[in-house]
Design brief:
This protein is α/β, with parallel strands linked by helices. Helix content is about 30%, strand content about 15%.
Length: about 425
């Protein structure tokens, strides 16, 4: 077995802001996606610049103390097309119109016409500073089926009909990150990554500073916590028979918060160990039918958007719950040390959906957050109102925030060449 370590003081310069050899600390790009949009009346903040107050659906971000790392963009529009779900999904994530494969029922079958924003980031970084995993694609609530193409089922795409499927099994992610054979059964009570590298750990600790010893202890404790959690959830930790449905409770309900928690921890470990610098988190798919039972919903979320009617109290509660899960993900990154700061300081994370609101399938006043400080490139804590602007500016801003210095993002009506300077330092 092999186990990566976080950045230690011994690896950094005297100021803790670069590697000892002068190389800058890694910049990371992230994508965090949730389906079916928001309730704009509860989402859009009041006030702009740094003097904004959150709507109720963004309150979990502020209550978690994350506002300094999160900027809100409102007022943008999808310019590439107006087809329900399809146009927003591809317009926001590729800056392009969807690629239509055919029709089904009263709608279309589509895929992405070009690479999604996370793949653009992955390709850029891998050409310059390769990591063991070019990207890490993680899923939280499962896909519940549709015949409308890869646009609905998958988040990350290399191009038409070429998705990078999200992994929904925490155990599979764990084994992938730590090079465990996929066909073995690991009893974590008797064998673990930490047990296998214990002698190396003990040999390293006397050679580093007290601060690095504490950092190593925190790192290994987080790995052990994940091992114990996996052992508790899966007994002997055999690979689940249904990797897209690993965590239902005895009543058949998805363990949404628990899945989000452990996937967020695994994501933080992968970034901290520099196993990857690009991640995508598929919280819920486009047109998601996830049953948000923690807020009392008994039907699929997509259907509730159409059936409930004003004032959409259940929809509003579901979006608020989703933002609580985002806040937990960002909190884990913020609380993971990295150099003299934390992982969220070095990340640029695009947070978005495939439409503005699910009742009318609108593509105006689009929901977009950009989280992280991007290694000093992003200001954080800003609400920028960009009335009628192209949503592609959001994607380009997030990419530039991660140091992805591409000249433009998108094509045709979605093409832009400037980020939102209001969000940049």
């Amino acid at each position: 077995f092999a186990l990566g370590t976080p950045l230690l003081d011994a690896m950094l310069d005297d100021h803790g802001v670069a590697h000892a050899g002068g190389e800058p600390l890694p910049s990371r790009f992230g994508l965090w996606f949730f389906g079916n949009g928001v309730r704009p009346e509860h989402w859009v903040p009041t006030g702009t610049g740094t003097g904004w107050a959150p709507g109720a659906e963004l309150r979990p971000i502020v209550d978690a103390g994350l506002a300094p790392w999160v900027s809100v963009v409102s007022g943008c529009e999808i310019k590439t097309a107006t087809h329900p779900h399809h146009s927003g999904m591809t317009g926001m994530l590729t800056g392009m119109r969807y690629f239509q494969n055919g029709t089904t029922r009263d709608t279309i079958v589509s895929t992405f016409a070009g690479p999604s924003v996370d793949v653009i980031a992955k390709n850029w970084i891998q050409e310059r500073t390769p990591t063991p995993f070019g990207s890490l694609e993680l899923g939280i609530t499962r896909f519940r089926g549709t015949d409308e193409g890869t646009t609905f089922q998958h988040l990350s795409h290399n191009g038409p009909n070429d998705p990078n499927p999200s992994e929904y099994s925490p155990l599979a992610v764990y084994r992938r990150l730590f090079a465990m054979a996929p066909d073995t059964t690991l009893d974590l009570a008797r064998q673990s990554v930490l047990d296998s590298v214990g002698d190396q750990i003990r040999g390293l600790q006397p050679r580093v500073s007290m601060a690095d010893r504490a950092r190593l202890e925190r790192h290994y404790e987080s790995v052990r916590a994940i091992e114990l959690r996996l052992a508790s959830a899966h007994g002997a930790c055999a690979v689940p028979m249904e990797p897209t449905d690993p965590g239902d409770d005895p009543m058949g309900r998805e363990r949404i918060a628990e899945q989000n928690e452990i996937m967020s921890q695994l994501c933080a470990l992968a970034l901290s160990c520099d196993l990857t610098r690009v991640t995508s988190m598929f919280f819920s798919t486009a047109g998601s039918g996830v049953i948000m039972w923690p807020i009392g919903a008994a039907n699929g979320f997509h259907q509730i958007n159409h059936d409930e009617g004003p004032p959409f109290n259940t929809v509003h509660a579901a979006v608020t719950f989703t933002m609580q899960q985002l806040a937990r993900f960002l909190t884990i990154l913020r609380d993971t040390p990295d150099g003299t700061g934390n992982l969220l300081d070095t990340c640029s994370i695009l947070v978005t959906s495939e439409l503005t609101e699910g009742w009318r399938h609108t593509n105006t006043d689009y929901p977009c957050l950009i989280a992280g400080k991007g290694n000093g490139r992003l200001r954080g804590g800003v609400h920028h109102r960009a009335e009628g602007a192209n949503t592609s500016h959001c994607g380009l801003t997030a990419l530039r925030g991660a140091g992805i210095d591409i000249p433009s993002f998108g094509a045709a009506e979605g093409l832009v060449s400037t980020p939102f300077s209001e969000l940049m330092t």
